[in-house]
Write a structure and sequence with these properties.
This protein has helices at 16-29, 58-68, and strands spanning 2-8, 36-43, 48-55, 74-77. By secondary structure, the chain is an alpha+beta fold. Strand 2 and strand 3 (48-55) form a beta hairpin. The chain has two helices and four strands, in the order E-H-E-E-H-E.
């Protein structure tokens, strides 16, 4: 399985509860696409959200996000780590 970091924009002022709700929506759908969302971070000032996921493809990650109601603006495979 590959790892992916995705980016969402337009969430200025997001609260911790709203971030948890968005992440929970992804978790509720992830198995249908063979994806696992590991973590989510947000910067309420810029409205940017970052998600780390593992899955078969960027397209599978995007399908989960779309169905959860928050399509990613960017999805990047992260194939190197230390």
């Amino acid at each position: 399985m590959a790892k992916f970091m995705d980016v969402h924009h337009g969430f200025e002022g997001i609260t911790p509860d709203q971030l948890r709700e968005a992440h929970a929506a992804d978790l509720a759908l992830e198995k249908e696409e063979g994806v696992h969302f590991e973590h989510a971070w947000a910067d309420p000032s810029s409205g940017t959200i970052y998600c780390l996921a593992e899955g078969p493809s960027a397209e599978a990650v995007q399908r989960v996000h779309e169905r959860a109601g928050h399509k990613a603006a960017e999805i990047h495979e992260v194939s190197l780590s230390v």
